[in-house]
Amino acid sequence: MPDPTRLSINQICVLPQWSLAQAIEGLARHSVPAISVWREKLHEIGLAEARRRIDGTGLAVSGLCFAGLISSADPAEAAKARDDVRRAIDEAAGIDAACLVFLSGGVDARDKDLAATRARVLDGLAQLEDHARGAGVVIAIEPLHPMACVTRSVLTTLKLANDWCDALGAEDVFGITVDAYVTWWDPELPQQIARAGKRIRAFHVSDWLTDTQDLRLDRGMPGDGVIELPAIRRMVEAAGYSGHVEVEIMSARNWWKRDPDDVVRTIKQRFVTEV
Amino acid sequence: MPDPTRLSINQICVLPQWSLAQAIEGLARHSVPAISVWREKLHEIGLAEARRRIDGTGLAVSGLCFAGLISSADPAEAAKARDDVRRAIDEAAGIDAACLVFLSGGVDARDKDLAATRARVLDGLAQLEDHARGAGVVIAIEPLHPMACVTRSVLTTLKLANDWCDALGAEDVFGITVDAYVTWWDPELPQQIARAGKRIRAFHVSDWLTDTQDLRLDRGMPGDGVIELPAIRRMVEAAGYSGHVEVEIMSARNWWKRDPDDVVRTIKQRFVTEV
């Protein structure tokens, strides 16, 4: 059973129902220890107001989601995307987030060269090192599920994330987000979690439903699917991670249609029985 | 450009439109060199009739699709599934198919133990060796896309397929199907195709659409998506494969609604320009 004080709830679990102000108030009311903030909601109220409200509740911030998508083959587009990551780094510092979750961006139809796209993203990450160090923010690169390779992430495996961290060689600035939903299928998962070790800066959980109907927005509540979440959590802990365990469920057909207080209550229950 | 005499069209490209008899006649009429047969369509007309019609046209048979799904934790269910694979082996022999495409089966909600499921499938495969050798049929195990891990295949990477072939140690009987659609995202693809070498007994192509809407039935026509098909084909050829290149498109929202003769004409055109 996970330590209940390590629970974080990603705001995306109740994205359509609650503003950031409502999410901060709601999670605090339910005694949830930590929140992960979604950038579009942060922008609605602004950094200072978000900071004031978070400080008022004592909620920890396990992460800011997300920045990145720097994979474009067009140099101007890629530079603009990197500038946006720098803004996100400042935002993460401003709300004292444990990390900034980074998504690489996908390969697009104009440029089918996957190896070149990956090389571009790795080069772009290196250009963000100084800004992140200056702000005291860890960029936690997140491999996504291979089904997101064209839309969001050419970083498709934890092995590649480890390879990129080896290449970047700046462990104070670059870490890894391990998400059980996007990595559970990987035969190399135990070895690559062990290899990641202290690089792990965020750990996300949700469940894979047997009747999954959408490539992005059909994640399940822990316990409703097939992922061995306790086993993966124990691997991550054995690797040295002791931060928050963040429940991150995008669910257009189910949880996004529910009463948000019920969503939070269910997450709290399932966290102790299924994670 | 691929050798046009190596084109095979998987019957599933026109599954709802044509019976097996119609597919055999249609592909022969369009001078397509080879067909890959879908078992449910074979059962409609029976093995003897299928053999007679195929022989009458001179079509080669690049594969029989598919058998497997032997992953159940229930011993009786698993034994029944293995018996069905044995029937499929006999069918593959009966139509002189170059291989029998094998799908492992997924992990189910009753048994979330992915490692144990994989071990069961590998053990089940070993039990099929003698029957396959007796029939002179190659079982071409196919890793599927990780998004099929719960529905169809705990075999999620080409690396694991190679590991299984190492463990099985019967290269005359067990080979590998490389499908570009389900493996293109894999950072290890070049190394694992090279490692597979002569194990490659089938090579399937289709394209990943940027707006993919379904986890199984939304494959694209070569050229309509983002996969570098010529690059992957060249890797497979460099590994020593010189068999048919099989176009396999399941497309519920597009190609399954088209005139089947148009589908075949389009495949023939795209094969030389996009594969």
Write the layout of secondary structure elements.
The structure is a homodimer of 275-residue chains.
Chain A: E1 7-10, H1 20-29, E2 34-38, H2 39-45, H3 47-57, E3 60-68, H4 75-94, E4 100-103, H5 114-126, H6 129-135, E5 139-141, H7 158-168, E6 174-179, H8 180-183, H9 189-196, E7 200-205, H10 229-238, E8 245-247, H11 260-274
Parallel strand pairs in A: 1-2, 1-8, 2-3, 3-4, 4-5, 5-6, 6-7, 7-8
Labels describing this entry:
homodimer; 275 residues; alpha/beta; TIM Barrel; eight-stranded parallel beta barrel; 11 helices; 42% helix; globular
Question: Can you walk me through this structure?
Answer:
The structure is a homodimer of 275-residue chains. Chain A is built from eleven helices and eight strands. The first copy, chain A, is α/β, with parallel strands linked by helices. Chain A has one domain: Divalent-metal-dependent TIM barrel enzymes (TIM Barrel, Alpha-Beta Barrel), CATH 3.20.20.150. The N and C termini of chain A lie close together (7 Å). Chains A and B meet through α7 of A and α7 of B.
What CATH architecture of chain A do you see? Alpha-Beta Barrel
Overall number of domains of chain A: 1
What's the end-to-end separation of chain A, in Å? 7 Å
Radius of gyration of chain A: 17 Å
